[in-house]
Amino acid sequence: MRKFKENLPGYIFLLLALSSISALALITGFIVVRGAPIITDVGLKEFVFGMSWAPSLGEYGIFPMIIGTVSVALGAGLIGVPIGICCSIFLSEFAPPVITTIFRPAIQLLAGIPSVVYGFWGLIFIVPFIRDYLGGPGLSILAASIILAIMILPTVISISEVSLLALPKQYKEGALALGLTHWQTIRFVMLPAAKSGIVAAVILGIGRAIGETMAVIMIVGNAVAMPESILDPVRTLTTNIGIEMGYATGVHQEALFATGIVLFIVIMILNATAQYITRKKSKK
């Protein structure tokens, strides 16, 4: 009895862990069961690489939306990742304590702002600016990329900063003792040593960008077409589900669940890659 009482907390935590895994399994199973039939009927190749999305005509090709998703996420990464890494270097190496006490809570606050607020801000400021000064309708890949770049900053900055701060002090001290300047130490010693953590931060940030829905719906234009430039409107996988799920029925609804399967696989691959890189770093 005494042994049972000692092990009881462990059993409780095990039960909670299993409940979390069970929830993931149920969600995955539900999406697969609801979406697999349409992939079987239409064909995986036609569904993934088809160019036409017209459920009323029985056409369920999601390739333009895959391109739209990749374009928006890639744009967010190209804008947000360099800014995020530079901010993490500043906070970990250059910022005085007074600045860090202000900047860190502010960065964390960015993660707590509802996505609809980002979308509204982009609709009022970013979209008109692009339309007036760069051309096009304003609702575009570029607008969505800018907003998502801001939204992924907390992830990229926080994880990258932790990776830099976790490095042994001997790395920096040894490099400085050998005559390297502070910037040379950061560039040639610290950044390569923290590469695994920074790469994991980038992957998780891009995964966050791919999974975003509400803000993107408001500013991406939602046109199911292959884009020719970053100023063209597109539709992403998440926005397609968010827009059409409210009225979709039958085969149309199954196609949206199948879209969710594709999106789910992409996100899982990204998260698994980040976990692999992080574990590889910890083993070293």
Give the SSE map.
Blueprint (H helix, E strand, L loop, with lengths): L1 H41 L1 H6 L3 E2 L4 E2 L2 H32 L2 H16 L2 H19 L7 H25 L3 H9 L4 H12 L1 H17 L2 H6 L17 H8 L5 H34 L1
Antiparallel strand pairs: 1-2
Helix pairs in contact: 1-12, 3-6, 3-9, 4-6, 5-6, 6-9, 7-8, 9-12, 11-12
Sheet bearing the most strands, described? 2 strands, antiparallel
Mean pLDDT: 89
Q: Please, how many helices?
A: 12
Helicity range: over 70%
CATH class of the largest domain: Mainly Alpha
Structural class: mainly alpha
Indicate the low-confidence ranges by residue numbers: none
CATH architectural designation of the largest domain: Orthogonal Bundle
Into which percentage range does the β-strand content fall? under 5%
Which overall shape is indicated by the principal axes computed on the Cα atoms? globular
Q: For the terminal residues, how far apart are their CA atoms?
A: 42 Å
- Succession of helices and strands: HHEEHHHHHHHHHH
What is the CATH fold-level name of the largest domain?
A: MetI-like fold
CATH superfamily of the largest domain: MetI-like
Count up the domains.
2
**Count of individual beta strands:** 2
C-alpha Rg (nearest Å)? 23 Å
User: What strand line-up does the widest sheet have?
Assistant: 1-2
